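Sample log: Galactose-1-phosphate uridylyltransferase.
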Amino acid sequence: MPELRKDPISRRWVIIATERAARPTDFKHEAIEVNDLDRCPFCEGREGRTPPEIYAVRASGTAPNTPGWTVRVVSNKFPALRIEGSTDRSRLGIFTRMDGVGAHEVIVETTDHHTHLGLLPVDHVAHVIRAYLQRYRDLRGDTRFEYVLLFRNHGRTAGASLSHPHSQLIALPVAPKRVAEELDAAERFFGRHGECIYCALLEQEQASGARIVFGNEQFVALEPYASRFPFETWILPRTHEPDFGALRSDDETPLAEALRETLYRLHACLDNPPYNFIIHTFPYRGESRHAYHWHIEVMPRLTQVAGFEWGSGFYINPVVPEEAARYLREVPAPMPVGPVTAGRTHGEVGD
């Protein structure tokens, strides 16, 4: 019997299509790898093909924009928004406009063209997390920016134009509509119940255990009760914190472990599926710190959004979230991967 489930945060209804119940092996998707190694600008030794480094983790004694790096951040060569301009708004009748002001950066996660975060050592993933944090915190200083969106597209289906492992960051002069909706829902729940809705969700999920995929002392990975997509997985900090940028240094490795474990299990269970992940965090100058809780949403691209979804706002998920969690929990632990050599970091070019 199909089931309708309501997401308590977005208040969106999802159809859990049990009569279409699918196993991991039922999902077919295109190969992630494409033959772009020869033209890849992110590979080591091709630093001149990208804009100059903004930040990097690299071996001692190596210079910016040369080989020897572990993680590297550069401006996007074809940015969606540009750093120059004003956030002043103008109106033309019912229409409003402003300059396309923002920042668009690429976090190149490794020199290895053929791997991804789910297969790298935890300490390497921690270097990537530190790169996210450094850029997120640095951009807070530009008062034109209201929000920084950190995201990763893995595979062509998920929107990646290059297969070399990389994430992206876009700083925006306004908070996105989706973030505003989450903040509104969090405030509404806090007003009724006096607690953070994400903290309440975590407490209930941990008591049940049915949708938990992985946990360590600081983070929990779970399948949302009203998952929009098969194997949609969220990673949440156990301690209430609205701002990703406030992550403590001793939580960087546990977060890297939770992220790596989640992506590895999806890789092993679903044969390296395309996916998007997005870090949902608090706007730079928001006012609902008591109500909101930062988190990561990982969304495998295994089904297509079609006419019914666009027309109704509903999603149809053919995998029961409890079954998805069970499949992911049953993935054997990954083989140990040797540690990467710790490198130094630098900030602006020339540091």
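Observation: The domain at 3-337 is CATH 3.30.428.10 (HIT family, subunit A).
Observation: The chain has a mean pLDDT of 90.
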